[in-house]
Amino acid sequence: MLPLYYWCVFLVGLGAAAGSGTGSSSTERELNQTPTWAVAGVCTVIILISILLEKSLHKLGTWFTERHKRALFEALEKIKAELMVLGFISLILTFGQSYISKICIPSKVADTMLPCKADGKHDASDTSGDEHEHRRRLLWFQHRYLAAAGTSTECKKGSEPLITVEALHQLHILIFFLAVFHVLYSAITMMLGRLKIRGWKKWEEETSTHDYEFSNDPSRFRLTHETSFVRAHTSFWTRIPFFFYVGCFFRQFFRSVSRADYLTLRNGFINVHLAPGSKFNFQKYIKRSLEDDFKIVVGVSPVLWTSFVVFLLLNVNGWHALFWASLIPLIIILAIGTELQSILTKMALEISERHAVVQGIPLVQGSDQYFWFGRPQLVLHLIHFALFQNAFQITYFFWIWVMNFS
């Protein structure tokens, strides 16, 4: 990063360059006719914001490193990479918009697959000059262009620009806020997850008490169906496939993880990965696992960018693409919630079928075969996709709202 001294030298030189230009007869002032204090002042604000952002991210990365939060540090690096991608997108749109807007296509082709009704194709009562001007004023940030916004495109009769400079500017803003909302939405989701895991701390502390050691005494035997975990997840309907999934579907709307679930999963994890009776903080392990998952979901993968482009392609007037796209994350989240509840129920059924008696807490056997296609990572990728789609729906809603009411 350049020292602040060099930025000051740059501003002084920029102000001198702005004042050395010749006059212009244009109604809109160009850079060489703009006061040097205005140019330097605007650049100062932009540069200070950039430096503040860079310093804040650096401090945050140092804080993660000092506290050995490797996963969160890698997530921060991924956010920096996304900011770099956005920078390249902004650079390409800024310097390429004048060339893209000069590409002309036939008017008949330009009138196909429009997201809204085209001007001049409404009822006769809507074709007056006042109504036409009113609709034009509803366009989002109509007079706010990028650096080359003043460039006009001349196409021959019967042809129109492939995409106008104004449309490129709106697309530019949409892409920027999509990435920002996705990072914020993922961060908020992780914070809610950490709050949920924090509630399990009291259950973890119970494992160090004498009451827990007494209830988990190997000399105490119980029938399988008498354990809290099996009793909570098994009943007559769990033997019928249809009612099995219906019950798992509705169970996700109540308390997702109970005390018996937590202690049973903890006991199974320790017996598989550690020596039985080991002192292990299972709650902190889950918290670190959440941070590892956040490192994945905070990024915008090529698949997610592809889904964004596909939505823009299918967002045709009358197809109601926004409505159908909003159902996709809802269906995914409900399906994942049902699947996770079914995994707990399958574990409980397996225990009841395998053992007649258990010692203390029942021992579950974790396996990838409980998940779809034997791939636990598929659940994480689906959550990643749902988070991105939710962020996109929020972004697109505000984008349409501003475009119609600003």
Describe this structure as you would to a colleague.
With about 400 residues, the protein is mainly alpha-helical. Among the domains are: about 1-20 and about 30-70; about 185-405, no CATH class. It has helices at about 5-20, 35-65, 70-100, 105-110, 130-135, 165-200, 200-205, 210-215, 230-235, 240-250, 260-275, 280-295, 300-315, 320-355, 375-405, and strands spanning about 105, 160, 220-225, 355-360. It comes from Citrus sinensis (Sweet orange).
Major β-sheet, in short? 2 strands, antiparallel
Main structural class:
mainly alpha
Assembly form of the protein:
single chain
Strand order of the largest sheet: 1-2
Strand content: under 5%
Organism: Citrus sinensis
Protein name: MLO-like protein 8
Summarize the SSE layout with pairings.
Layout: H1 4-19, H2 36-66, H3 70-100, E1 104-106, H4 107-110, H5 129-137, E2 159-161, H6 165-198, H7 201-206, H8 210-215, E3 221-223, H9 228-233, H10 241-251, H11 259-273, H12 282-297, H13 302-314, H14 321-354, E4 357-359, H15 376-405
Antiparallel strand pairs: 1-2, 3-4
